[in-house]
Design goal:
Layout (H helix, E strand, L loop, with lengths): L2 H4 L7 E4 L8 E7 L3 H8 E3 L13 E7 L5 E10 L10 E7 L2 H13 L3 E2 L4 H8 L5 H12 L3 H11 L2 H25 L10 H20 L1 H9 L1 E6 L6 H9 L17 E7 L2 E7 L9 H16 L2 E7 H6 L2 H13 L4 E7 L14 E2 L8 H13 L13 H22 L4 H19 L5 H8 L7
Length: 464
């Protein structure tokens, strides 16, 4: 499909600063479009006797760059690409300047004055998609790769960029296309009552496809957590040491710590990495009975955090446990009632107070104040994630858009199966199969709308 024609893609040349805003060693400007080399040539003078326009593509060229008034701005390194052998699939160039914000701004003005226009967010990657250099799921992976904060998040994004999702969706589409084609062929011979697609084989195929889609959907919770961070709530009674443990895990004094019970009145959320996995850590207000209005509101937020968390870490004051374990046992049961699907970790804190602790089997003993045992908690959290059957799988669904499309495809496949079971015509079954094809195709961009592209690429940074 010619996406450029179908979506009204223009042929203008765009420019943007591709490096981070601020002072640095280098500032890189990217130019892409049919007039890229011509526009660069208006501002850049290559060293030596061979002009820029006659230089070989993908060859670094040293030279000088002029400001809009013609004065010398900087010495730069220019690298040019010719279509289709470039990131965007168009003629393009990258210019490396010294990393002064003034130089970057002025160079940008020079290129705009020479005929380029400022790129929109994600426009370079959008052009790469429109020119067939990558599909839509790979384009989304570019943004995920840039935003990745952990080894696990990076691995998911990189596999998607290399086509893990694309290949799986193509396999599903191929199976659906073959089956739909046979059903639609029957319509051409309806008067002869010919059956090209065996109904038993078709039923088996629909069952297999639904199973495959369901398996992909099961990876979504993990995929989203690896990308955005595993939601982890620190819960417990007041003064159990939750805020101290938060600070210990973060290696910084993020939360206010006091010996006075009830210091934490609201949730505090931060991120930390353990075993290459990103966790979204939520410190909560101590859970107890109280008539104090503000503290009660904080406890309600603690309950909500417990319900949303993938991991609940119940922090227990070891001294309190020794005196009376019943309140801890009751709270442990309450956490399970709030979130039956959540993973719970029991942590006995304040082990540095030199009182012997006899925790239940599987509980961890540590001192958040001294840091003793904190690494064991980190290892336990990471181990729980890596034991997930989907962890390390080649295809992991990490985008809500992809999951929504798969759910819609699953519904269409279910409707096709029901139509087949009730003996409806092949034409009606084919309609449901085409709907499933459309939903699966939307993931990689075989089926795409301009407003969807605008929504996706508007979340990219300018210059990418």
């Amino acid at each position: 499909m010619d996406y450029r024609h179908a979506l009204g893609q223009t042929d203008d040349t765009i420019v943007a600063v591709a490096t981070a805003v601020g002072q640095g060693a280098l500032a890189v400007l990217r130019v892409s479009g049919p007039r890229s080399w011509e526009i660069v040539n208006a501002c850049f003078c290559a060293a030596g006797s061979t002009p820029w326009l006659q230089r070989s593509p993908r060859t670094a060229v040293f030279g000088t760059f002029a400001a809009p008034d013609g004065s010398l701005l900087d010495e730069v390194l220019a690298l040019g690409f010719l279509a289709p052998a470039s990131f965007t699939g168009e003629d393009s160039a990258e210019l490396s300047f010294h990393g002064s914000p003034y130089i970057a701004r002025t160079a940008l003005s020079s290129l705009i004055a020479a005929g380029a226009r400022l790129a929109e967010p994600g426009e370079f990657t959008r052009r790469a998609f429109l020119n067939g250099k990558m599909d839509l799921s790979q384009a989304e992976a570019v943004a995920d790769l840039i935003a990745s904060e952990s080894a696990a998040g990076h691995a998911v994004a990189f596999r998607q960029l290399k086509g893990s999702v694309s290949r799986r969706m193509d396999e599903l589409r191929t199976e659906l296309i073959d089956t739909t084609a046979l059903l639609e062929l029957e319509l051409d011979f309806s008067e002869e009552d010919v059956e090209f697609a065996s109904r038993d084989r078709l039923m088996a195929l629909l069952t297999d496809l639904q199973t495959e889609v369901a398996q992909l959907l099961e990876t979504f919770v993990l995929g989203q957590a690896l990308k955005e961070g595993v939601p982890t709530a620190l819960l417990g009674a007041p003064n159990a040491g939750k805020s101290t443990l938060l600070n210990a895990l973060l290696r910084e004094e993020r939360a206010l710590v006091s010996a006075v019970p009830g210091t934490t009145r609201d949730t505090v959320e931060e991120r930390f990495t353990a075993g290459g996995i990103l966790f979204r850590l939520v410190d909560t207000a101590g859970i107890r009975e109280t008539d104090e209005t503000v503290e009660r509101l904080g406890i309600e937020r603690s309950q909500e955090a417990a319900r949303r968390a993938a991991v609940q870490v119940l922090v227990v004051d070891a001294v309190v446990w020794n005196a009376d374990p019943l309140p801890t046992q009751n709270l442990w049961a309450q956490l399970e009632a709030w979130n039956p699907q959540g993973h719970r970790v029991l942590v006995f804190n304040k082990a540095d107070q030199e009182q012997p602790v006899s925790p239940p089997e599987g509980a961890l003993v540590l001192s958040a104040a001294t840091g003793a045992g904190v690494s064991e908690l980190e290892a336990a959290l990471a181990q729980w994630v890596t034991q997930n059957p989907a962890y390390g799988a080649d295809t992991v669904v990490s985008h809500a858009r992809h999951a929504a499309a798969l759910r819609a495809a699953a519904d269409s496949l279910s409707q096709a199966e029901n139509a087949l079971r009730t003996g409806l015509s092949g034409e009606l079954v084919a309609i449901d199969l085409r709907d499933a094809l459309r939903h699966i195709g939307s993931i990689t961009g075989q089926v795409v709308a301009d407003d969807l592209l605008s929504s996706i690429f508007s979340r990219f940074c300018i210059g990418k």
